[in-house]
Amino acid sequence: MEAALTTPIPALKNGATANASANVETITLSVPDIVCGNCIRTVESALKTVKGVSAARANLAMRRVAVTLCHDDDNNDGSNVTDLIAALKEAGYTAAELVEGADTAASRARSSEIIRRLGVAGFAAANIMLLSISVWSGEATDMDGSIRDLFHWVSALIALPAIAYAGQPFFRSAFSALRARRLNMDVPISLGILLATSMSLFQTVRGSEQVYFDAAITLVFFLLIGRALDESMRTRARGAAENLMSLRATRATVIADDGSIRALPARALTPGMRVIVTAGERVSADGTVISGTSEVDESLITGETVPRAVTLGDRVHAGTLNGGGTLHINVGVTDENTLLADIGRLMLAAEQSRGRYVRLADRAARLYAPAVHILGLSTFVIWMSLGSGWEVSLTHAIAVLIITCPCALALAVPAVQVAAMSRLFSRGVIVKTADGLERMGEIDSVIFDKTGTLTHEQIALADDQNTDSSLLARVASLAIASRHPYAQAIVRAARNRSIAIDPIEGVREIPGSGLSVVNNGRDERLGSAHWVGVNVDQDAKASLWYRADGEAPTGFRFVDRIRSDAGQTVKALRDAGYAVELLSGDRREAVARVAQACAISVWQGGLQPSQKLQRIDALRASGHKTLMVGDGLNDAPALAAGYASMSPASAADISQAAADAIFQGDRLGGIIETLKVAQAARRMAKQNFAIALGYNAVFIPIAMLGYVTPLVAALAMSTSSIVVTANAIRLRTKKLPLRPVRCRV
Amino acid sequence: MTSLAWLLPAALTLGLMGLGGFLWALRNGQFEDLEGAGWRALEDAEPADTSEHDEASDRHD
After folding, report:
1. Fewer CB near the terminus (10 Å): N or C of chain A?
2. pTM of the model
């Protein structure tokens, strides 16, 4: 080892391999734009050119890259993640270090454990079925009794360990339910499996003709398929949500006490740290301004589109966008009186109302479990009272338990939900929880937030001003020097009109006031009314002014840019009978304009988060089931309180966490698609229940009469499971209309 | 009848080998990226690529 460490440079490669374990680091990056084979190659080769990268492996399904970094020495760590992200940016891919939720690793472990059990159950089911089919066909020909016994014994040999291993999730869940004095779906499942297995073992020992090992293990196999589907869907949705979160997570530039500067992930910040926020950057933590003056865009927090001026001693919130100046912030503790703490409290209270929702499958189980037990018991009692002896009676009772075992019922809902979620996934909607999808199917009214939801996050120059092109060109040449939202809106407006922008050198920016430059001997100014020297009363609506020496000042007004399909989406919702409302924290005039543009007649502006919550509670009290669509921090309590909720991918972290589903892209069409699919999923889940119930209605009498042989049991169970799954798969491609809803008010 | 004496163990052994193969593949991460694997098969990239990765992953496991 010492030799390896002291080996000079020529042997470096081998040396690095030998002592690699100490200096190797694996970093997972989220790269949402990996969509094809070419991307895999581009991303991997771009990363391999970065110094210290020994391996890069892209995962197309998860849209992630695992990078293995080997440090030559310990001096240069820390900056490496930034290097990787920069290299990917050069190759044309946005990337971010993955922020994993606390329960992700546990869920991945659970998912792979279920698939292992599924493999074992599948192996056992196939082999036992092979033996069982031999026995059944042997009955029609001339199979020897001893060979039949041998086959039964071999089946037992395979089935017992396989069931003991693969059935554990059901046994465990049933046990914990019983201990809590409750009944869940796993109780009849476990009872059925255990009774069928032990009775079959007993019959095998006695050399009887009928054993049910195949039924027991097939049951476990099918049920595990349902569990595996459920789990993989959840893992996938959680992974996608984490990718989004990672992209939004900001890195903070921290100044240490000795004056040195380093970059830290925002989540690693601790109170008391000093953070620099440069112009145009998102504020990485809550805190107090200790130096600098600027304007912050707080639309994500309050819905207000006009930036707020901040200076020494003012509080700023994480997630707000810094305007023109550089700020130094002292990271503060989230104390009890901040807006964030208020929102946290409101959310906590709001979430409790949603906890009362009972999933469809659980509702079915509440009826199903006792019914099955009563049927099994009464079969036993009736056969006993008819004088058939305990053995025959028990056999028939167990046959009832096997045949009613909710194979189809346990697959009915997960299969539909997987089909629905993967359909939505391919259309850019991430549904985070399965019960969220169920709730979405019952919605009858939709509440929109304004800023960032019906409108884009960025503001735009009001287009009814007919600004002269040459004037706009001059203003844009000045504005391009600044990252202030107003200045950027001017630049965008100029670009939209294909006006050539010629950046001027020597532009001076005074944060909180504006820009100034001396161009060709003329003083030009762009900024607040005060900065330009205009009397504010002149045109109170304008929020940005431009004046060149010897010219009249020009005022510019800014408005929210409404999403292109906002009006269309609202119309489609209203046509289908949904009640649509607009609740915003922004000024009333701004809200009124958007409400009018989208043809929303019920709207309120200037609302506090708690007032939004009150409105949702009022709707609930009048019997509405409300879908809340919002993005801001101020919407988070409302998102948690709504019967269901959605957020755009640009939403604040806390809002994304509170929402049931997240839609990506610039369009609102995802909302309609989600509602359509949710309605269809609900219908199909009910269809599947009907199929399962119909199957039971046919087979329970047969089982109670004692005509269920192992062959009938195997056939009936497989068929019902396959029918239910096939029905669910239709949802993936079916054309869906938005069904009208009844407003019960 | 006597043929069963070796047919049954042979069938079970083959089945167990299949199960073992599946569990091995699962543990090895063969099912981590089903979409990407399809694309990688079409790649003409030099085989050094994969060997380097294998070597790396062996080392860290």
Report:
1. N
2. 0.77
